[in-house]
UniProtKB/TrEMBL annotation:
Record's keyword terms, sorted: Carbohydrate metabolism, Cytoplasm, Hydrolase, Magnesium, Metal-binding
Gene: fbp
Protein name listed in UniProt: Fructose-1,6-bisphosphatase class 1
EC number: 3.1.3.11
Ligand binding (Mg(2+) 1): 92, 114, 116
Alphabetized CDD domains for the sequence: FBPase
A GO CC term assigned to this protein in UniProt: cytosol
UniProt xrefs under InterPro entries: FBPase_C_dom (IPR044015), FBPase_class-1 (IPR000146), FBPase_N (IPR033391), FBPtase (IPR028343)
Keyword Cytoplasm attached: yes
Residues annotated for substrate binding in this entry: 117-120, 208, 274
Pathway: Carbohydrate biosynthesis
Reaction it catalyzes: beta-D-fructose 1,6-bisphosphate + H2O = beta-D-fructose 6-phosphate + phosphate
Species assigned in the record: Aquabacterium soli
Length: 335
């Protein structure tokens, strides 16, 4: 029988090997992975559990919260608050940061998450996920919101779990990207891809086409050229996919390449985009770059952006390197 590598074994090897993964960070990742298993159980219950529909509340962004948004948020907090590995947590679903209560020891890490990404897909049984990002808390400072305002280049780990036909955990600790599949009978995460790589070229793009009339010119130019197909300047036909769960769209790109865009558009001039820098764009950019892809906001590398607010939004273009470079070049030419 071939030997299966579990998440625990992988992390211990990372602790002993070149990555020199800190024991507290190993514990953190194991706890997040365990929380994702619990969330997967709730997701799978669907109409059999009291998990579908709205919760009758709104988050800080004024979005209606689904029951599963709140359940997933609570599961992640409960799982993480007592372990002694965290100073504080921040979530897309909480207005303020959650400092680890005094009754537990404080650790040196900061955890950020989008507990349930793709909320509009929950009730229609389409893939959704959990995204997380980990930063280090600066020594000797009391933890507050400012502690979290670090650029994505400071992330020490990031990942997501996709609740789809399979439950898959995708992770980086800055040494490439690995994928684990949940073995439901054993209850364990099994390593199923030890070196995830995004092809540099692609014939597939992901964007919400219904916003086309609002796009900025460089985005419109890029998509127009893709749509022109073989007869156009790109000389090849493109395919389109849009799942409306960033986790699932990024998962496809990590699996077979592609470019994903949720760009700024003219509807909301004051807002730089829909997706959130700390809970969505930074962790996904870290994963994509570690897999050989690229991620920009049109003009700058996302991971180098200095956040000024916890719930900051950002324009996102990520995936196969040559396509992201092309869209970024179109933006730079236009500016
Ligand atoms: P959420 O975190 O509230 O679920 O919102 C983020 C989601 C992304 O997963 C996805 O890419 C995007 O919103 C879909 O937006 P749209 O409904 O405009 O297609
Ligand atoms: Mg989200």
């Amino acid at each position: 029988m071939s030997h299966k590598v579990s998440l625990t074994q992988y992390l211990i090897e990372q602790q002993r090997g070149q990555a020199q993964l800190a024991p507290q960070l190993r514990l953190l990742i194991e706890i997040v992975a365990r929380a994702c298993k619990r969330i997967a159980i709730s997701v799978n219950k669907g109409a059999l559990g009291d998990v579908l529909g709205t919760a009758g509340s709104e988050n800080v962004q004024g979005e209606v919260q689904k029951k599963l948004d709140i359940i997933a948020n609570e599961v992640l907090i409960e799982a993480n608050e007592w372990g002694g590995h965290l100073a504080a947590m921040a979530s897309e679903e909480m207005d303020e940061i959650y400092v680890v209560p005094n009754r537990y020891p404080q650790g040196e890490y900061l955890l950020m998450f989008d507990p349930l990404d793709g909320s509009s897909n929950i009730d229609v049984n389409v893939s959704i996920g959990t995204i997380f990002s980990v930063l280090k808390h600066a020594d000797g400072h009391a933890v507050d919101t400012n502690s979290f305002l670090q650029p994505g280049t400071e992330q020490v780990a990031a990942g997501y779990c996709v609740y789809g036909p399979q439950t898959t955990l995708v992770l980086t600790v800055g040494k490439g990207v690995v994928m684990f599949t949940l073995d439901r009978e054993q209850g364990s995460w099994v390593l199923t891809d030890s070196d995830v790589k995004i092809p540099e070229d692609t014939k597939e793009f992901a964007i919400n086409m219904s916003n086309m009339r609002h796009w900025a010119d460089p985005v419109k130019r890029y998509i127009d050229e893709c749509l022109a197909g073989k007869e156009g300047p790109r000389g090849k036909d493109f395919n389109m996919r849009w799942i409306a769960s960033m986790v699932a769209d990024v998962h496809r790109i990590l699996t077979r390449g592609g470019v994903f865009m949720y760009p700024w558009d003219k509807r909301e001039p004051g807002k730089p985009g829909k997706l959130r820098l700390m809970y969505e764009a930074n962790p996904m950019s870290f994963l994509v770059e570690q897999a050989g892809g690229a991620a920009t906001n049109g003009t700058q590398r996302i991971m180098e952006l200095q956040p000024t607010q916890l719930h900051e939004r950002v324009s996102v273009i990520l995936g196969s390197k040559n396509e992201v470079d092309r869209v970024t070049a179109y933006h730079r030419e236009a500016s």
